[in-house]
Each structure stands twice: as C-alpha cells, then as structure tokens.
Design goal:
ABC transport system substrate-binding protein; 5-stranded parallel beta sheet; alpha/beta; signal; Peripla_BP_I; single chain; 331 residues; ABC_transpt-TYRBP-like; Rossmann fold; 13 helices
C-alpha cells in the first residue's frame, strides 16, 4: 500500500529590445536559436536514482509541449563524483548564461549555489537543503535557488528491517563521510535506533572504490542499511555481493537500490521527484516565479518495494503477508 506523508512546505523573466540604427528599417524576425531555452543539468555521478530524476525532469517539459532541439535544449554534464568538476560545470553554465540550472544531488547543488548568482537554480535529490547551506529555510529559500528534497523515512525503513528480521539487533550503515545528505540520514538512523532498541554500526568511505573494504569492516552485523548516498550507491554491487556471500540481509533507502539487489525499502520514485522539479522549472520560465520565494518541495507518497529473489539469495524468508503488502515486487 502507498503511504502518504505531509510535505515540508510546499525568476527569471527574459526581456530585451533590439536597438535599430536608421529610421525606416523593419525589425528582424527572431531566429529559432533566439527563442531556444537552454537548461544546464549538473549531476554528481551516474546511478539509477539520479538518472531517473534527470529523465523525470526532462519529461515534465515534454508533457508541457516542449520539443527538445526545437524550443528547448539540455546541456547535460556529469561531475564523475568530483567536487572540483562540479564547480567547473557550474562556472561553465554561468559563463554560458543558460536560462536555468538543474543540480542533481547535494554536491552539485552546493557548487551551483556558490558559483551562480543571477540564473535560477533548482536542485533535486538533495536530502536536507538547509543543512547543506543551500537555502535559508524550506519555506522561503531566498536568493536564486529552490528545488525538491528526497528526504526519506529513515525510521520507517528501520522498522521495516525489524519487521522482516525480528531478531535483528545490530544494523551496519555504510555512507560517505563527505556528503551532508548522508550525515543527516545517519543521525536520523541513530535517533530512530534508540527508540527501536537497535545498535548502529558505521563504516565510511570517501569514494566508491572504498565501498567493498568498508562493507567488510562492518564485521558482525545482523543487517546492512544503505542511505541515499551517491558514492555508496555508485558502488552498491560490492555490498550486494558481500551480503549474498555472507548471508547478511541488505536494505536500501531508495527504490533503485532494491531494483539492483537490496531486499526492501519504503522509498520514493526519483522519476516523480525529478518530474516535480521540472514543473517548478516551468513555473519559473513561463510564469516568472522567483526560486527564492518557492518552498522546497517533497513527494507526498512513499512506496513499499520488495525484492523476494534478493531476500532468498541472502537467506531471508519473506512471509506471504509481507509480500501481499508490497506496492511493487521486483521480479
């Protein structure tokens, strides 16, 4: 069944005139390139959740009647996990004077916010924009930036682990020490664990190549939980392989992780999140709304996603009652 949660709180006007010399000359007709909207998209790494957010964003324009290559173009850049590259991409977009920038994930959003001051910036797949220094508040971001948050229901996700593994006592979490979004989720997990009687064991990485070693370093845990961490998600296959080989159940924080081989999660659709961000962009471009006055938005539904085959590979037996509750089963 789908679960509903409350929202945290749900400009650019281009104008110009041609200066004509001479008195009787007719005004030239605008070319297609003059009318073309250019949106710069900066993505921190390539993995399914972020890819889905990007494609959802673009689909919002398709559904609004825009045709790529005719009246809109997307300059898509990937920072390959490097903050310095994200800053270079942001500087490029500022120099190119694109009409709007979409920053996918916290590091690229931070780079855009620090570099771009006079172009509308929207972010998506950012967990806690205020903690990341992107906005003054969720309700009124200020400056030239707003967007959508992927803040996930951490406590419900830990409760799901307990429902599937009633005897679980220790949950290992692997995350990137350099990602604000991950720090926020780990703190939420620690707080929830106190109420649930769980012990959290942490392992950190600085890049995706360290994921395998960090997984092994967890040692004796009853389950592994992966937050919406970009670097760990990029290297998720190493965690899946370890979990299957050692019969340690793996749980995710977003749908794509379950599709790749985690057992289950209560998660959001990143396609829908990106689509919602695209709708915000259209309001900015068409209606002249100011990003700084647009509340940060979230999705109001989460889905229970279940991967029975992954559970079997990790030695977990799922009850028929649990399977019946799933919104989506990964075959």
């Amino acid at each position: 069944m789908k679960h509903t949660r409350s929202l945290s709180g749900l400009a650019l006007v281009a104008a110009g005139a041609l200066a004509l010399s001479g008195c009787a000359a007719s005004e030239p007709e605008a070319s297609a390139s003059d009318d073309m909207i250019t949106i710069g998209i900066s993505q921190i790494v390539q993995h399914q959740a972020l890819d889905d957010a990007r494609e959802g964003f673009k689909q919002a324009f398709v559904d609004a009647g825009y045709v790529e290559g005719t009246d809109i173009e997307f300059d898509e850049q990937n920072a390959q996990g490097e903050q310095a590259t994200a800053s270079t991409i942001a500087a490029k977009f500022a120099a190119d004077k694109v009409d709007l920038v979409l920053a996918i994930a916290t590091p690229t959003a931070q780079a855009a916010a620090q570099t771009i001051i006079d172009i509308p910036v929207l972010f998506t797949a950012v967990t806690e924009p205020k903690e990341a220094g992107l906005v003054e508040s969720w309700e009124k971001p200020g400056s030239n930036i707003s967007g959508t948050s992927d803040l996930n229901p951490v406590k419900e996700q830990l409760e799901l682990i307990q429902e599937i593994l009633p005897d679980a006592q220790t949950v290992g979490i692997i995350y990137s020490s350099g990602e604000v979004n991950s720090d926020v989720q780990v703190e939420l997990a620690k707080e929830a664990a106190k109420d649930l009687g769980l012990t959290i064991k942490e392992a950190t990485v600085t890049n995706s190549s360290e994921v395998a070693q960090a997984t092994v370093s967890l040692g004796d845990v009853d389950a592994i939980y992966i937050p919406t961490d970009n670097r760990v998600t990029e290297g998720l296959e190493a965690v899946i392989q370890y979990s299957e080989s050692n019969q340690i159940p793996l749980f995710g924080a977003e749908n794509g992780q379950v599709e790749r081989g985690a057992i289950a999660t209560y998660g959001i659709s990143y396609t829908d999140l990106g689509y919602q961000t695209g709708q915000m962009a259209i309001r900015i471009l068409e209606d002249g709304e100011n990003p700084g006055d647009m509340p940060v938005e979230t999705l109001d539904t989460i889905e229970f996603i279940l991967n029975p085959a992954a559970a079997e590979r990790m030695g977990v037996t799922l009850t028929e009652e649990l399977i019946a509750k799933a919104d989506r089963i990964i075959e």
